[in-house]
Amino acid sequence: MSDRINKSDDEWSKELSPEQYQVTRCGGTEPAFTGKYWDHKGEGVYACACCGQFLFSSDTKYDSGSGWPSFWDAVDKSNVTEHEDNKFGMRRIEVRCSKCDAHLGHVFPDGPNPTGQRYCINSASLDFKEGSAG
Ligand code: FE
Question: With 80 as the cut, is the pLDDT of residue 35 above it?
Answer without folding.
Answer: yes
